[in-house]
Design goal:
single chain; 338 residues; alpha/beta; Aspartate Aminotransferase, domain 2; Aspartate Aminotransferase, domain 1; 2 domains; seven-stranded mixed beta sheet; three-stranded antiparallel beta sheet; 14 helices; 43% helix; binds pyridoxal-5'-phosphate
Length: 338
């Protein structure tokens, strides 16, 4: 089969032969009975890495975010969230649909942070006219931007002062930690719960973990069962997640270097607007000139490069993309555009 250079997302990575071997050899049991040794090991490992009391494995980041929100909030509660955050915008409204949790979306600053004064302003007084403001939901990285470390104690303080719980959608928290040159636990430390994807830059085919205190994770376990995330011999996929945590977190700087190389190469092409912030990790955003936008995706596809369409294109580097691939992509953008 023809190999494609796939820049649509870091979710497209395929398990390597070594990861597949770990999956094939995984010891398994019925995880709904708590019997799967590999799932149990993954959960214990994740809890230790993130410095939390407990963790739970689930099929997707959408589900770990959902069961976290359901665990923190009750029917009639409200969570405050970025207008462009994944939990609000790209998870089919699950918190509202399944939890009767009202979202209070807020525009984020260009660096992915909340304006904390605005957060304080939208928190509802304790009055029966209003939903009860219960939770603040942060995303790191957001659009590939690592949140500044100095912001984390401020957002935690804002939540604590106002009696809000604090959840982190840390789908790409390892990218954020590499960018900020810290351990992931130094980021997780500020949050009551954190959702982490194993199936993005870490290269597992499926799976996410939710880490937090014992009580929150116990509540999440009930919600996971209810939404159909109680899996049986899940050790087969948990083994891939464990392998990812053990082998693939140390190489993320390579993806960031590739993103920078890509951004620099595309910025040389006339008329292309490249957004590449200093806090950027494995994502580059590029806007082609108006007359070039329509045909770009097809041109690249016929040359075995996959991108998402649109006028502002997100390009994502990951462990299946080499330095040579980046040069190929830059060359193709140039040949298409000149
Ligand atoms: C920031 C963020 N959070 C959560 C998710 C959800 O993960 P999943 O696709 O595993 O449901 C994604 C997926 O792209 C994401 O980008």
């Amino acid at each position: 089969m023809m190999r494609h250079i796939d820049l649509r997302s870091d979710t497209v990575t395929k398990p390597t032969p070594e990861m597949r071997t770990a999956m094939a050899e995984a010891r398994v049991g019925d995880d709904v009975f708590g019997d799967d040794p590999t799932v149990n090991k993954l959960e214990a490992t994740a809890a230790a890495i993130f410095g939390k009391e407990a963790a739970i494995f689930a099929p997707s980041g959408t589900q770990t975010n959902l069961i976290s929100l359901l665990s923190h909030c009750e029917r009639g509660d409200e969570y405050i969230v970025g207008q462009t955050a994944h939990t609000y915008r790209y998870e089919a409204g699950g918190a509202a649909v399944l939890g009767s949790i009202q979202p209070q979306p807020l525009d984020l600053n260009p660096d992915g942070t909340f304006d904390l004064e605005r957060v304080a302003q939208v928190i509802k007084p304790d009055d029966y006219h209003f939903a009860r403001s219960r939770l603040l939901c942060v995303e790191n990285t957001h659009n590939g931007l690592a949140l500044p470390m100095e912001y984390l104690p401020r957002v935690a303080d804002c939540a604590a002062t106002n009696g809000l719980r604090l959840h982190l959608d840390g789908a790409r928290i390892f990218n954020a930690a590499v960018k900020c040159n810290v351990e992931v636990r130094e980021i997780a430390h500020y949050f009551d719960s954190i959702s982490v994807c194993l199936s993005k830059g870490l290269g597992a085919p499926v799976g996410s973990v939710l880490c937090g205190d014992r009580q929150t994770v116990a509540r999440a376990r009930r919600w996971r069962k209810m939404v159909g995330g109680g899996m049986r011999q899940a050790g087969i996929i948990a083994a891939a997640g464990l392998f990812a945590l053990e082998h693939n977190t140390g190489r993320l700087q390579v993806d960031h270097d590739h993103a920078r190389l890509l951004a620099e190469g595309l910025a040389e092409i006339d008329g292309y607007k490249v957004e590449y912030d200093q806090a950027q990790t494995n994502m580059v955003f590029v806007s082609p000139p108006y007359d070039k936008a329509a045909g770009l995706q097809d041109y690249l596809r016929t040359n075995q490069v996959l991108i998402l369409g649109g006028s502002r294109i997100r390009l994502v580097t990951h462990l299946d993309i080499s330095r040579e691939d980046i040069h190929t992509v830059i060359g193709l953008f140039k040949s298409y555009s000149t």
